[in-house]
Write a structure and sequence with these properties.
Elements: H1 6-32, H2 35-44, H3 47-60, H4 64-80, H5 83-94, H6 103-126, E1 130-134, E2 137-141, H7 165-185, H8 189-203, H9 212-234
Antiparallel strand pairs: 1-2
């Protein structure tokens, strides 16, 4: 029987937070209409789906609809998240860092983004999904985490454990960019949001911490809120002189 418990409510709240960040990312795009705002907006389009897929999974059950939703959220994450590497380079440029004005440096950020996209392409065609139960929730994953078997008596195959190299690289790069902006311009939000995401993602991998997976997802809107705030502040040529709060 389907139930609404703390884990379900937690993912619903995180999903709503992702939609709020998406709204402000769209406002950013409407205001600036530049490459930075578009690069930030695109990965956010389906971030909320990561959480709502978990919320509705127990109600719609295993089947074509949940499989489609799952494939869409995995595909979008694998192929769109690397765009934030380019956004990191643009933020450095807008922040007035001389080395980032060099076209070769910006090209390296672009090459890294494309490389991470290519790295995850094979998973798009090889991936299988398996039932995964966390608390009262039900979802499909490429590899069932420890302690989240729906039927311990009939465990699924090991599946594919996708190394989160692009996600870690994006998070760490933007954290460094954030600390650079903090040191030069007194703007802390990108650094703090990225640091929170880095810690939350690490904690989410600790099997003994029951709320780890939920905390890991909670870090995503916090991280992206810091990124959107940084783009409001530094996204235009006059951004260094702007208030970090957008109208």
């Amino acid at each position: 029987m389907s139930t609404i418990g703390f884990i379900t409510v937690g993912y619903f709240v995180v999903g709503v937070m992702c939609l709020i960040v998406l709204y402000y990312a769209y406002k950013l795009w409407q205001e600036q209409r530049n490459a930075l705002s578009l690069l930030i907006l695109i990965p956010l389009i389906f971030l909320w789906l990561d959480n709502f897929a978990i919320v509705v999974g127990q109600y719609i059950g295993e089947g074509g609809l949940l499989t489609f939703i799952t494939y869409l959220r995995y595909f979008w994450h694998w192929q769109m998240l690397p765009l934030l590497m380019i956004a990191a380079g643009i933020l450095l440029r807008r922040g007035g860092f001389a080395f980032a004005q060099n076209k070769v440096v910006m090209a390296l950020f672009c090459v890294a983004a494309v490389g991470f996209m290519i790295l995850d392409v094979p998973y798009i065609f090889q991936v299988d999904f398996y039932p995964t139960c966390y608390g009262e929730t039900f979802r499909l994953t490429t590899n069932v985490p420890q302690g989240q078997l729906c039927d311990p008596a009939n465990p699924p195959p090991p599946g594919i454990s996708v190394a989160p190299i692009p996600a870690i690289a994006v998070n760490f790069t933007l954290m460094l960019v954030g600390f650079a902006l903090w040191a030069r311009h007194g703007f802390p939000w990108l650094a703090l949001g990225s640091l929170f995401m880095f810690i939350a993602a690490g904690v989410s991998q600790v099997p003994s911490f029951y709320y780890g997976p939920l905390l890991g997802n909670f870090g995503e809107p916090i991280f992206n809120a810091g990124l959107v705030a940084a783009a409001f502040r530094f996204g235009t040529a006059s951004g260094r002189d702007r208030s970090p709060v957008a109208a």
